[in-house]
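Predict the structure of Fe2OG dioxygenase domain-containing protein.
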Amino acid sequence: MGGIGQAFVQEPEQRPKPSTIEVDGIPVIDMSVSGTGGIEKLASEIGNACRKWGFFQVINHGVPLELRQRVEKVAKAFFDLPIEEKRKAKRDDLNFTGYHDEEHTKNVRDWKEVFDMLIEDPTFLPASPDPDDEEIRTYSNKWPENPPEFRETCQEYCREVEKLAFKLLELISLSLGLPANRLSDFFKHQTGMLRLNYYPPCPSPELALGVGRHRDGGALTVLAQDDVGGLQIRRQSDGEWIPIKPIPNAYIINIADALQVWSNDLYVSAEHRVVVNSEQERFSIPFFFFPSHYVKVKPLEELVNEQNPAMYKEYSWGKYYINRTGSNYKKLEAENLQIDHFKTPESE
Ligand SMILES: O=C(O)CCC(=O)C(=O)O
Ligand SMILES: [Fe+2]
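Done. Here is the predicted structure for Fe2OG dioxygenase domain-containing protein.
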């Protein structure tokens, strides 16, 4: 199979096609605000992007460039280590943080290695997906010994990107016509994580994917990608896969499932995937912003009325997350839990 294992081979309809389309990409939004009405204008640009694409890029976002460069450097230094060294910080059955090189998306293995860390240490999550099980488990980060500055750099970076995530959450609330802090309380004990993604060159990029098509399960993702490119999103209008052009120092922001539900389908959690190439390695760093485990996710009351009935039934974020985490990393017979499973009859 062209030098890659069978586990990595995508079904023919999922394989990437050489792209010839030249398209206008997702909106690029300048977050520096000036003058009266600046915030409203910014919120409205964000709202439009969330409705049309569920994706946008931001510039002048406030995360120091020097810090981003430092985190990129420790990520590269870590993934350059020998595999035995990386596996010392490996994910295990009790703790899903750390290094992992066997992730599956939709049951096909992804051509990548990852390192996951929790933003809050410790993080509290349900012990099991069983709705009757009230036990809460405490998770802590696993850190590699090398490079020595790994832990401190990643922690510092998490704090800065978290500020940006809260700022975006406020702008998104405003864009929905709600008070800026409407969504903030859902994140008092946020359960999110920072992931370092490493996509090695792939001998058969036409057969495999770095990450198979998926939607992000949390609320919001703040992604740093390097200059190689490979991320593609599925356009709402025609289902075409659109490449997201790397813009130096920008962040890619995407609406994830909980925001689609809170907005009662006004905003979209768009499907995306990553294609790989045979020449260059690629790095990306998503910050996944997730609510507190006890948050019950459902369409916001202010957005529901007789003309706009609730499109989703309520679900517990913690139970949903644990259900998906338990299934995400293994090859399964069935598709893992998706928000579509909570659609109401009114939404049909
Ligand atoms: O590497 C990327 O550009 C995106 C990765 C991604 O979609 C994810 O980790 O959820
Ligand atoms: Fe993603």
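The first strand starts at residue 28 and ends at 30.
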